[in-house]
Amino acid sequence: MGGSAPRRDHHLPAETTSFVDRRGELTEGRELLARARLVTLTGPGGVGKTRLAARIAARVQRAFPDGVRFVHLSGLHDPALVPLAAADALGLHDHSPQPPLAALVEQVRERRLLLVVDNCEHLAGACAQLAAALLRGTEGVRILATSRHRLGLTEEHLLEVRPLPVPDPDGDLSAAEGYPALTLFADRAAAVVPGFRLTPANRASVARLCHRLDGLPLAIELAAVRMRVLDVDQLLDRLDDRYRFLTTGSPAALPRHQTLRAAVAWSHDLCTGPEQLVWARLSVLAGGFDLETAEAVCADDSPEGAVGYAEARGPFGGHASPYAPMCPDGSAERNGPGQAFAAGCGEGAGAAPGPRGGSGEGAGAAPGLTAAPGQGAWPVRVLPDGPGQEAWPVPVLPDGPGHEAWPVHVLPDAPRQGARPPQVLPAGSAVPTARAAQAPLGTVTLPLPAGAGPALCADDVLEALAGLVDKSVLCREPGPGGARYRLLDTLRQYGLEQLRRTPGEEGAARRRQRDWMLRRAEDCERGWFGPGQPEAVARLRADRDNLRAALDFSLSTPGEARAGLRLAGALWFYWHACGAPREGLYWLDRALAAGPEPTRERARGLWVAGLLAAATQDFPRGRRHAADALALARALGDPAEAAHAEYVIGVIRLFGDDLPGALRHFEATVARGPVPGQHLSLVGLDQVELACALGYLGEADRAVEVCERALRLCERHGEQWVRSYVLRMLALAHSVRRDWPRAERHAREALRLKVAVHDVIGMALTLDLLASIAAERGAHEHAAVLLGGADRVWADIDTGRWGAHTLNSARRDSEEKTCRALGREAFERAHRRGGGLGLAELVAHALQEPARPHPGESTADRPPHENSAVRLTRRETEVAQLVAEGLANQQIADRLVIARRTAEGHVERILSKLGFSNRSQIAAWVTAQR
After folding, report:
1. Following DSSP, what letter does each residue of 482-535 receive, concatenated?
2. Residues 580-619: pLDDT tens digits?
3. I need a surface site. Which of 359, 444, 689, 815 has the fewest CB within 10 A?
């Protein structure tokens, strides 16, 4: 079982501000793409490469029948993930056993598309390998890259993106509006000062400001925001001061780098203290993020927040396991040192987990640093503020006789001073000095290091975010669950530099980010067997870059590997149900190698790796991992993880066409029933696989009985993903009974649910089944269209349908039956028509309902609707028919003995008349008219 979640939009990014004229570069870019297959836009940071690439791609997208896709690399830092990011952008869900790059090339070999790869400079080697493989393994794929440096391939054509031209401030400025740099400043200034425009009185100052900023668009935009509080002359004076300060220490820096850095540093200087601190801490986040994530990473009083500069953590940062037993008051048991899953429960346990998992009355004041009554405290250390400083070892007093005290190291609160001994109160929590007035009875108060400033609360973070958005430091954009935010790369790098000025702050922020991602992943896992599946997956996919960053931090930082293994295992449903088995395997391989200890996390990681290996057809590896997981879980006395490992062993038998073995296996697990702590999704899937084996072995009545029991389980919890597979199994069982109306009804209901959770693999399987049912019912043309559509969906997954004999034989039977009824020519015509439909229209055709595009599907990719009212001229009809045959513009021109430009004009007019955006829509329309 598996599929794909609603994915981040990989079509051209929407423009939220006006685009300042770059007609020369746009024309040159289009011309380069017309004759070269790899074009790289190069230039310094902040010059506008991404916006220009998006504009060029928008201008040429009609030349690419299979579309334009945008690969965002700014939040990616692992070269091994570049092919996976490209596949994700292309909507591919590869489950073949090939290496990722080879599989990608194979899947796009016959396509004509443009791939825009943005921000290549930090992954130049991996991007060069991707480009080389696509250029040499395909004929119709072109690449438009953006990078501060060339990729270094012989096929590469470069387009240097220069700063915007600026007039001489002391020259003739009567035509100042014709200079893009001044136009950009005026446009952005008018956004914050309504009515602002270039006038004879301010032209010289604006020109001088833009000249001082070297015409760099990002620097100009950052300066224009300051018009809210300063006029142009004040802007220029203050920028000159900041520029002189920055450039005195770095004479070797490139002038444009100095200019941009001066503009960024000046924007930083004008931020409030909390805004500067939030900017620095947010720099550890990769890609976009929401308010909750910002609060968790930046606030000192959040569950993940550092209290001052103190650090006190258990093995997993104090989070509950979704499989842990529950305390009588409903709070989950926690982990203590040297324990797998055991600790006490306190009155406030659910509100503020302590380092050992317990909590006391004062838990809310110092999350993550609280010891429950009857427990010792975790060691606390305050991270160093600079070299050459010493710390005071201070014991945290035990809370009762017989308990050992842990040492606390407190740094001096100013350079070259000794540290003040902190006030030690009787119980073992820690709060920053700035919040000492709120400290409950029983706390150790730790002074902040010099320069640390007051601690931030969640409200402070919200206020700082608003200020950073107002100052154009943060971009605000829509996302699942509400607003999301993003730091531009240049600003993120600057923030990271500021963060690293305080030793230990970067590690603390990255640890808080990891702990928050772990908490979010486990929350989603706990709620996975319930009504919130689409929302949970949409949120995780939006957080994908941050999940990767959290995993990479855990697996590359000493002492953090176990938390990384826990996170990779908690995401099992995401890797499996959402069509990401390759990336899941990549992280699990790293995590298992880094965590060889016999722990529950390793048992989980092994069976998840086995499941994902099976999904990519590596059955021997899958069996080995699952068997190791089962043995380890039994040795640990963990029945839930043992049951999960047994599911994987059984499903590998089913994938491997061992139907009798799979039947015996799942009969035994279903008869045993759920075990304590077993995830309900896997309980339901045990029943799904049993019904599948029964159906394929012809035992339809038993299969129906099993499915009805599983349906009741899903309905009680409002679950959709497993329920969609149960309904598909019901359709299969009724097909065995030859009850075609009932089979079709269940299959259509299954397809509706799969669309709701955007389970692409499930859609492909169900479309195959609906095609088979249509062929049996005598709806042969409908069956042929469904087969064409299903084959097109499978092309994004695995054209061989995983090599499964059962799936391939059923598909072959449907085609043979339909071909006999229609004839080969009519079958191929209907099959091509189905292959030309987009997902929304294909589903609508299968359900025989009006098409409703999925929220993640671009209207540019929506295939044609039949429009018999459109009238083409005789020549346009000829051209449309040649387009349907797959001819390119030059081939059409040769066939009709006309100029290529004339052929291009005909194609453009056809697209305009029909309201289409690409050639494949014309082809499908022509087929539908025959």
Report:
1. EEEEEE-HHHHHHHHHHHTTSTTHHHHHHHHHHHHHHHHHHHHHHTSSSTTHHH
2. 899 999 999 999 999 999 999 999 999 999 999 998 889 9
3. 815
Structure tokens belonging to residue 661: 């073995």
* Residue 172 neighbours by CB under 8 Å, 6+ apart: none
Q: Which helix (H) or strand (E) holds 114?
A: strand 113-118
**pLDDT, tens digit (0-9, with 9 covering 90-100), for 163-185:** 998 888 888 887 767 788 999 99
380 bridge partner residues: 408
Beta bridge partners of 307: 310
Angle at 707 between CA 704 and CA 710, to 5 degrees: 155
pLDDT in tens, 731-749: 999 999 999 999 999 999 9
Backbone angles phi, psi at 423, to 5 degrees: -70, 130
Closest of 225, 264, 281 to residue 460, by C-alpha: 281
> What is the CB neighbour count within 10 angstroms for residue 929?
15
CA 231, distance to chain mean position in Å, is: 41
- β-strand partners of 382: 310
Is the pLDDT reported for residue 257 higher than 50? yes
Q: What CA–CA distances, in Å, run from 271 to 462, 468, 491, 720, 759? A: 14, 8, 13, 47, 45
Using the predicted structure, report yes or no on whether residue 862 has a pLDDT greater than 50: no
CB 761 within 8 A of CB 787: no
Bridge partners of residue 381, in order along the sequence: 311, 409
How far is Cα 267 from Cα 699, in angstroms, rounded to an integer?
71
Cβ–Cβ contacts within 10 Å for residue 643, how many? 24
Q: Report yes or no: 387 and 411 within 8 Å, Cβ to Cβ.
A: no
Among candidate residues 902, 907, 905, 872, the one with its CA nearest the CA of residue 887: 907
Question: What pLDDT digit, counting tens, does each position of 746-771 carry?
Answer: 999 999 998 877 788 899 999 999 99
CA angle 863, 864, 867 (to 5 degrees): 170
| Cα atoms in the 13 Å half-sphere on the side-chain side of 127 | 30
Q: What is the pTM of this model?
A: 0.72
pLDDT (mean) for 45-49: 90
Is 371:403 a contact under the CB 8 Å cutoff?
A: no
pLDDT of residue 616: 86
Nearest 10 degrees: Cα torsion 904, 907, 911, 913: 110
Mean pLDDT of the chain: 79
Distance from C-alpha of 665 to C-alpha of 647, rounded to nearest angstrom: 9
Task: Say which residue the tokens 């920028």 belong to.
Answer: 239
Residues ≥6 apart with Cβ < 8 Å to 785: 830, 831, 833, 834, 837, 845
Please state, in angstroms and rounded to a whole number, the distance separating the CA atoms of residues 597 and 490. Answer: 41
* Range scoring the smallest mean pLDDT among 174-178, 323-327, 886-890: 323-327
Distance CA 910, CA 829 (A): 21
H or E stretch at 432: strand 429-432
Query: Which value, to the nearest 10 degrees, does the dihedral of the CA atoms of residues 23, 27, 28, 32 take?
Result: 150
Measured distance CA(282)–CA(275) in Å, rounded: 10
